[in-house]
Amino acid sequence: MADAVTSTTILDGTHRALIQITSLSDGTGESAVNKVDVSALNARADGTACSGVTIDKVHHSVTGFTQVQLFWDATTNTIALALAESSNGHMDFSNFGGIQNTSGSGKTGDILLTTIGAANLDTYVIVLDLLKHYG
Fold first, then answer.
1. What element of type H or E holds 73?
2. pTM recorded for the entire structure
3. Residue 1 confidence class, pLDDT cut points 50, 70, 90
4. Residue 24: enclosing H or E segment and its boundaries?
5. CA proximity to 69, closest of 37, 110, 30
6. pLDDT tens digits for range 38-64
7. Are 101 and 109 in contact (CB under 8 A)?
């Protein structure tokens, strides 16, 4: 059996996307799993594809897991955000323009997720409020 995970797009507009991701772990955990595929987000009205996102806000609830990590996908993945063990809350990064993608070579714009210290029945619910970039 594997972790039971979901990824639900709540909103995919011209400027913003809201993505809810969840997991009920069987202890297997996740390693660099693509949770936000920018190429799958809606294009702008003129047909320009979404090429990346900025993390504007995060709502989360983590039960168990030593840590849940979000990474910017690239040749060498770059940490975007780490959520602490058994934590919950709301983080708002909009005052300074959000968490920017700082990865270098091989940058895709996607967001990956890794769990550390997974145990049976550990859970997370994360809602990412993202600003979309084009071209």
1. none
2. 0.96
3. low
4. strand 16-26
5. 30
6. 999 999 999 999 999 999 999 999 999
7. yes
